[in-house]
Amino acid sequence: MHVALVAFEQKGESDSMLQNILNILSNMNVKVDVLSSAIEQQGSIDSDLVLVTGGDKGILQYFHKLTVDSPPVLGVYEEDSTGFLAQVDVRDLARIMGMILSNRYRVEEVTRLAVRVDGREIEPVLNDVALFPSKSATLMEYRLRINGDDVWHDKSDGVIISTPIGSTAYSMSAGGPIVLRSARVFVVVPVNSMDVTRRPLVVNDDVEIEVSDIISRYRCEVILDGGRRVTVRKILNCYRYPYPARFVRLEGYSPASLLAKKVKLAEDMLGMPPSAKLVLKTLEYEGPMSQRELIARTMLPARTLRLALNHLIQKGYVKRRSSLRDARQKIYELRI
Question: Which residue range is the domain that position 58 belongs to?
Fold first, then answer.
């Protein structure tokens, strides 16, 4: 087997993780190419499998940069799981690679979203595209069109356009439906619309979604998978990206069990303080962070952040551990 290894650093991962992976693969006589994280410059990826480090954030970065077809991807993390996309703890990699070498896996394809802002192509996304004013608690107006036809004119906090795999992320938090990964649809979710008749919209994934006539007191931004922000002045277009994301799904993998975890999370989130929801989503998109980093990212007061973290730890959604680089510092990460 020929494996490509793409390393995205994640806070708290040891410097020896990459070497550990290389040693495991070498002992199994697996051919390995270590690729630069600037994979968009490397053309096609000639391998049977791609291992991506960095947890869920690493996988999102990989598929943001990937502009060509890709072999199936397996996400590798260090210690406990930090999300829903990365599947394999590096300590279990030898066993998992044994399953793969024995063909005890399948390949799952999920749709990605192509994004165009003011006529300029932006990187594709895996989960969702969100459009919001740059200043929170500010309304914006916009017009939604599907394949050029007017659907609605709305005034709301914002709008989210989601893939099926992203339907259990930000979209779900805003009241969107849970969609099976195999569905060939997109979901459009208005956020806190002033029109009570506005409901999430499910459309075929072969359409083009257009958000235009955008008006707000402050500039508006397109947010890609909860990370990169791009200023939008006039128009946002979203449509199916020609190359889907491919994942390795190991023998015994159950989409229903993962969906059940997400449903339980959705139920619990109904009773969560808003600050806890914000921290949970920040850790899901950004990966493990210290208290200081969480305060800077969420802009929550220190006391509010501590209360939110305590709530999430007691519920079993977040764990606290010592930093591998500085034992005096505590790192917080998802454990679901």
Answer: 2-110+245-250
- Is there a single domain that holds both residue 155 and residue 208? yes
> Which among 216, 240, 264 is the end of a domain?
240
Q: Are residues 64 and 144 in the same domain?
A: no
Query: Is the predicted pLDDT of residue 277 greater than 90, yes or no?
Result: no
Tell me: do 214 and 191 sit in the same domain: yes
Domain count, the chain: 3
Q: Are residues 224 and 140 part of one domain?
A: yes
Residues 228 and 125 in one domain: yes
Between 199 and 79, residue with greater pLDDT: 199
CATH number of the domain residue 311 falls in: 1.10.10.10
Quick: pLDDT tens for 172-204: 888 899 898 889 999 999 999 999 889 999 999
What residues contact 111, with CB distance under 8 A and at least 6 apart? 163, 164, 165, 184, 186, 205, 240, 241, 244, 245
Task: List residues with catalytic annotation.
Answer: 56
Question: pTM higher than 0.85 for the full model?
Answer: no
CA angle centred on 9, ends 3 and 12, rounded to 5°? 125
| Together in a domain, 87 and 129 | no
